[in-house]
Amino acid sequence: MNLEFYKYQGTGNDFVMIDNRTLTFPKENIALIAKLCDRNFGIGADGVILIENDLDFDFRMIYFNADGSQTFCGNGGRCAVAFAKYLEIIKAKTNFIAVDGPHLATIDNGIVSLKMIDVDEITVKENSVFAYTGTQHHVELVADLDQFPVFEKGKEIRYSYSDPGSNVNFVQQINDATFRVRTYEKGVEDETLACGTGVTAVAIAMHKTGKTTRNLISLPVEGGNLEVSFSEENGVYTNVFLKGPATFVFKGSISS
Ligand SMILES: N[C@@H](CCC[C@H](N)C(=O)O)C(=O)O
After folding, report:
1. What's the chain's average pLDDT?
2. Which of 57, 189, 228, 235 is the most exposed place for a label (fewest CB within 10 A)?
């Protein structure tokens, strides 16, 4: 069978996008998902995203990590909005559904602003913060992000959390409103060039621990620049928005 796909990237976090409104994609075929993401034997991506019809929302987004595990993905959500616009499912605004609940989003000139879930699951530890932003995130400040062994340390910390583990974000503060981030992603089992739910966790963790008093944070990542804004009341973060570019790369077909 020939599978038509589109490749998108959001600040270098890259995805194979599939229009599955026909419900023909074999979701249980983990080997196929892994093959699509394989950078040597497949298309190459951090994850696979299916767009499906939904009775109550503009569309349903289903995200698979490269290893076939399912969760929410912030950059993937932004790319899903750009893809849904290309497919003419939406125009400039949308309300779509994903595994963590509904998401409002707008797209303007390739820049997608995506409303994330409210964040109230935040644990401040001695040297790190854990936050749930649609998926699990460990956040840790380091002195020299360029020299930091993100893969080795990220892998170690990822498995120190009980199943399903945690993504791991290493952070360097640049100024009051700017934090550079490098992320080790579970399910990809490698450092990726950006992580949307990750920078969201970082912005909230830095606010929660008093590293910043701002509610609009710039987050340079390896693949570009992201922005996170939010409101905070009694330790609960609402109106959380992740903003950045979402870009079509190429399309093609692959035998599955
Ligand atoms: N890159 C994503 C996060 C993808 C999911 C993550 N690997 C997990 O398993 O939690 C993002 O942009 O949020």
Report:
1. 98
2. 235
Q: Exposed, middle or buried: residue 143 (CB in 10 Å: 0-12, 13-18, 19+)?
A: exposed
Q: Which two tokens stand for residue 237?
A: 């973060």
Atom of ligand 1 nearest to the CA of 166: 10
Q: For ligand 1, pick from 13, 37, 135 the residue to mutate: most ligand atoms within 8 Å of CB.
A: 135
Q: What is the architecture, at CATH level 2, of domain 122-244? A: Roll (3.10)
* Domain with residues 2-115+246-255, CATH architecture: Roll (3.10)
pLDDT of residue 256: 85
Ranges of CATH 3.10.310.10 domains, the chain: 2-115+246-255, 122-244
Question: Are 15 and 79 spatial neighbours (Cβ–Cβ below 8 Å)?
Answer: yes
| pTM of this structure | 0.98
pLDDT, mean of residues 114-120: 98
- β-pair partners for 47: 15, 65
Give CA–CA dist 66/46, Å, rounded: 5
